[in-house]
């Protein structure tokens, strides 16, 4: 674990010095991936993801304004999200079954827009998870992270303007309030985690911070820049560790499927977001970031850097993950029902 942290820190510094977009994240990801070829024991403690969620949750919560969600999140937004997810899945499923000649089961799992944890739960009943399915989701995750970095680079002016407000906010941070927010996020997050709710510590960190800043506006809670940078670097390292498990042979065999599924999902997102942006009178890029099937942490970080309503973006991804995490229970119930019908 220590060697992984060393490469993570060194990669993050290199990415920052080279002025890469989202340099901490991509610098750490690339160096950890390269180092894993020589150090096969590269790993991070499972609580690292908890740290990332708390940092990002509090960072986003410090930006949430009273009534922001009520004014944006509506039945129309929820309907748009479900519509986008459904079409993403159908298009991906048709491609994998007809073009790639995958089985129906693997095609469905590979086409599901995100939620790696839910996919692993579903494949847990098999002797080993389908490598092609896992690789497809990995390609999607990395591709969307790269795309997010390009957006951040091309929108440099907007990002710089947004960062200045973050700096002012972080300078007003009070240590006592931050400590209370972290402890509350951990305690409540553990409760939500036991209920099976995705990204529990991000949710609690956001709600505790937003609620605290609303109740006591004179003592705002904010997350220091250094901790946000560390969280981004660790997120990149986690992605690098996941990618190292894919062999060269698997890469060559499944790369095309992963790239096409990602591209098709992105095209669907762009089209559906355009339609609902007009219907709901919401910013187009905000809806794209909210409905693209990427990692909740990566998409929230990108929205945070670009000033694209990160609270709204994160909430949409939380809803998407909650819907997808209910998929294992749905499929299990469907399988049980079919087995009962067959016995009759």
UniProtKB/TrEMBL annotation:
Any GO BP annotation: regulation of gene expression
UniProt entry tagged with the keyword Mitochondrion: no
InterPro entries per UniProt: AbrB_fam
Record field: transmembrane: 6-35, 47-64, 76-96, 137-155, 176-192, 198-219, 226-245, 257-277, 314-334
UniProt entry tagged with the keyword Membrane: yes
GO CC, alphabetical: membrane
Alphabetic keyword roster: Membrane, Transmembrane, Transmembrane helix
PANTHER family assigned: REGULATOR ABRB-RELATED
Name of the protein this chain belongs to: AbrB family transcriptional regulator
Origin species: Photobacterium swingsii
């Amino acid at each position: 674990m220590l060697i992984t942290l060393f490469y993570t820190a060194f990669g993050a510094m290199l990415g920052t010095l080279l002025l890469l977009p989202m340099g901490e994240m991509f610098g750490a990801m690339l160096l950890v991936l390269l180092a894993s070829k020589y150090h096969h024991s590269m790993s991070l403690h499972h609580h690292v993801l908890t740290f990332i969620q708390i940092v990002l949750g509090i960072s986003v919560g410090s930006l949430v304004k009273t009534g922001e969600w009520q004014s944006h999140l509506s039945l129309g937004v929820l309907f748009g999200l479900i519509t986008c997810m459904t079409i993403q899945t159908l298009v991906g499923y048709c491609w994998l079954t007809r073009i790639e000649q995958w089985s129906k089961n693997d095609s469905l799992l590979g086409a599901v827009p995100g939620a790696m944890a839910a996919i692993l739960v579903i494949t847990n009943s098999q002797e080993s998870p389908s490598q092609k399915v896992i690789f497809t989701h990995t390609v999607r995750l990395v591709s969307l992270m790269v795309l997010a970095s390009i957006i951040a680079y091309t929108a440099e002016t907007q990002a710089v303007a947004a960062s200045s407000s973050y700096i002012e906010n972080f300078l007003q941070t009070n240590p006592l309030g931050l400590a209370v927010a972290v402890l509350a996020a951990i305690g409540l997050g553990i409760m939500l985690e036991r209920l099976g709710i995705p990204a529990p510590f991000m949710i609690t960190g956001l709600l505790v911070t937003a609620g605290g800043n609303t109740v006591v506006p004179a003592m705002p809670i904010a997350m220091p820049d250094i901790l946000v940078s560390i969280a981004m670097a660790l997120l990149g390292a986690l992605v690098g560790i996941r990618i190292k498990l894919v062999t060269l042979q698997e890469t060559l065999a499944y790369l095309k499927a992963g790239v096409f599924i990602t591209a098709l999902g992105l095209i669907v997102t762009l089209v559906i977001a355009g339609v609902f942006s007009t219907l709901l009178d919401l910013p187009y890029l905000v809806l794209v970031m909210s409905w693209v099937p990427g990692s909740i942490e990566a998409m929230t970080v990108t929205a945070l850097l670009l000033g694209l309503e990160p609270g709204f973006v994160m909430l949409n991804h939380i809803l998407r993950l909650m819907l997808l995490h209910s998929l294992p229970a749905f499929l299990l119930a469907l399988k049980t029902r079919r087995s009962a019908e067959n016995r009759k």
